Amino acid sequence: xxxxARSRSLPDVAQDQAAxxxxxxxxxMDGIALPLMLDGGDDPDVGDGGANSLLRVPAExxxxxxxxxxxxxxxxxxxxxxxxxQGFADTPLCAQSLRALLQACIDSQNxxxxxxxxxxxxDQLLLRPALASANAGWKQYPVAIEATLDASGLRLQLDLSxxxxxxxxxxxxxxxxxxxxxxxxxxxxxxxxxxxxxxDWLASPRGMAATPHAQRSRAYLRIRLRDDIxxxxxxxxxxAVEEALATPVQTAVKREDEQAFAERNAANLMFCEDAAxxxxxxxxxxPGVVEFQARAAHLESLHAHDAVARVSxxxxx
Length: 317
Hints:
Blueprint: E1 24-41, E2 53-67, H1 77-87, H2 95-107, E3 116-129, E4 136-150, E5 153-167, H3 169-186, H4 195-203, E6 214-225, H5 234-245, H6 255-267, H7 272-283, E7 289-298, E8 307-314
Antiparallel strand pairs: 1-2, 2-3, 3-4, 4-5, 5-6, 6-7, 7-8
Helix pairs in contact: 1-2, 5-7
């Protein structure tokens, strides 16, 4: 007979009294692997293309409860692990499923715990169309969702980062000045240059005496969400922020797309302060946002350091 089939009681030293009585803020496990089911919304490239489309992605989770019983030696960790594995097996990630999981984790400790938290980390893949050509490509966005449940209720926090391009307004102004000075020097002996002469000059190497510096930049968002929010629509959040910044980094790029990207950069010159204000403007009116913190980091091509602006505020709630 296998040992697992024997009728016997197994020892559980976690039930022993703690040698040094003290409550603990959090006890649990970090770095647990699991798949998550995400709501694909109306994206025709996910699932069946309907509102019930689902996307399964690999994720990593941290899960914990407090140890409110000062005399208890430990918690039932295996119960947390199994609840986490079961919690999202057939249920899409949403506020309701997070609340149910955390309540089950508290209940599993037989009165020894009063609160629970889970942090889920995964990459959201979104299909992004090219700016001008008929192409498209996938881009990944690192996401972390932290949910905490205690006597005061559920608290949801979403962390997200995304990349965009920023062309320096000061460098652009300085470049324009040099270009203008060269034009004056090259046409000093021409009293009335024709349109074709100016066109040919602008299209030649002489027509660009200086170029402004631009760099890949990154926005870091930390958002507290309403505890009764429905779907955690990361795609809609990304769309709103990228539309506000106007120069998200691209995926599939042909020459016409690169030219369109250059036009967008010229029309959206940004210091890091400008980018931070654009982000704040969109988050402050985005439904479901309670409060937010944002950081715009321009990874300078001129300097050996980054230019950074931080902003915080409240959303419509």
